[in-house]
């Protein structure tokens, strides 16, 4: 399954005092602009075609399924950064209303109804291609202001990906292979070498190839579940190193998700930067990033049977014009 381009990934060590130059150089090396035409809105999801979805279905052997989503509730990880709050769930009709006979339905009928208010990226979610810009440019070189306006993302809204993210999933349990007790410490930068060592340790079923949906487990969510959310949302965390940009591009994966709030290592690897890998991956590579995925139960199962590939369906909620959306990913083995 490994693409030949992966073996040719260059090793680049950027100057941590110069994020601007490092980001510009990585963006130029890894750009997929116009690769699928000037009108493209799917980015790396173009690598995930019908044939790959069909072959992924053959990975289902036992039918055992795993939800990879956190719960959406008021006890979630958010702390209010940039007005991101946890979901607020409110009942509109309840059983007590039905018992009281105040709902106005005939012949004894009663019911319950509810509403939820939440930021679209408050829990398990996908970053869409309109979520991050590079010097005012969105995916495929479009002007950011012509893509995302007060009306939402009018070009690459998350609804354009609603039926596409279904295929072969691969778990890279870096926390189990490289960490202590299955967990990487906060601030641990996962390099290409760490990814490749994890693949080698896990065996043939963990080989990563074109069109795959890669899931990287760090173990930070395991720690948060044990110790409390703390600074999980936005604080220090293990994650992908900026230097993996070339691997993300060269491997031709369709999408990648982690069990952390911000996907990449935090603090970031430059003296003055914020989420530099996002700046390369989303607007330049066209890569869909998933965050806050719960990979623990799946990881235990994969470790037990030694099989790290599975059928994965991970459709975002198709909120028209959204730049990100909640998802309940389901892995089936």
UniProtKB/TrEMBL annotation:
Gene Ontology molecular function terms on file: arylformamidase activity
Pfam families, alphabetized = Cyclase
Q: Which InterPro entries match?
A: KFase/CYL, KFase_sf
Task: Tell me the Gene Ontology biological-process terms attached to this UniProt entry.
Answer: L-tryptophan catabolic process to kynurenine
Q: Which domain of life is it from?
A: Bacteria
* Protein name per the record: Putative cyclase SCIF3.09c
Q: Which organism is it from?
A: Rhodococcus wratislaviensis
């Amino acid at each position: 399954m490994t693409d030949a381009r992966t073996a040719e990934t260059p090793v680049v060590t950027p100057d941590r005092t110069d994020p601007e130059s490092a980001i510009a150089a990585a963006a130029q090396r890894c750009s997929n602009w116009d690769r699928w035409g000037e009108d493209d809105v799917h980015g790396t999801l173009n690598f995930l075609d019908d044939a790959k979805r069909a072959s992924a279905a053959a990975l289902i052997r036992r039918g055992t399924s795993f939800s990879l989503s956190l719960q959406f509730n008021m006890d979630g990880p958010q702390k209010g950064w940039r007005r991101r709050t946890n979901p607020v769930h409110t009942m509109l009709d309840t059983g007590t209303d039905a018992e009281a006979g105040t709902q106005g339905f005939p012949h004894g009928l009663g019911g319950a109804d509810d509403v939820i208010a939440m930021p679209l990226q408050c829990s398990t979610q996908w970053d869409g291609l309109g979520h991050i810009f590079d010097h005012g440019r969105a995916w495929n070189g479009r002007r950011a202001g012509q893509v995302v306006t007060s009306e939402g993302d009018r070009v690459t809204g998350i609804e354009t990906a609603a039926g596409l993210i279904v295929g072969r999933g691969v778990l890279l349990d870096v926390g189990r292979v490289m960490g202590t007790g299955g967990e990487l410490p906060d601030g641990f930068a996962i390099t290409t070498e760490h990814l490749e060592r994890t693949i080698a340790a896990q065996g043939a079923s963990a080989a990563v190839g074109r069109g795959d949906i890669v899931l990287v487990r760090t173990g930070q969510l395991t720690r948060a579940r044990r110790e409390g959310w703390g600074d999980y949302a936005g604080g220090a965390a293990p994650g992908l190193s900026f230097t993996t940009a070339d691997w993300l591009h060269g491997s031709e994966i369709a999408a990648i998700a982690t069990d952390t709030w911000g996907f990449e290592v935090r603090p970031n690897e430059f003296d003055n930067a914020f989420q530099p890998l996002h700046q390369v991956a989303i607007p330049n590579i066209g890569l869909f990033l998933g965050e806050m995925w719960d990979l623990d139960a799946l990881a235990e199962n994969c470790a037990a049977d030694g099989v790290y590939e599975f059928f994965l369906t991970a459709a975002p909620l198709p909120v028209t014009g959204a730049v990100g959306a909640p998802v309940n990913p389901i892995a089936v083995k």
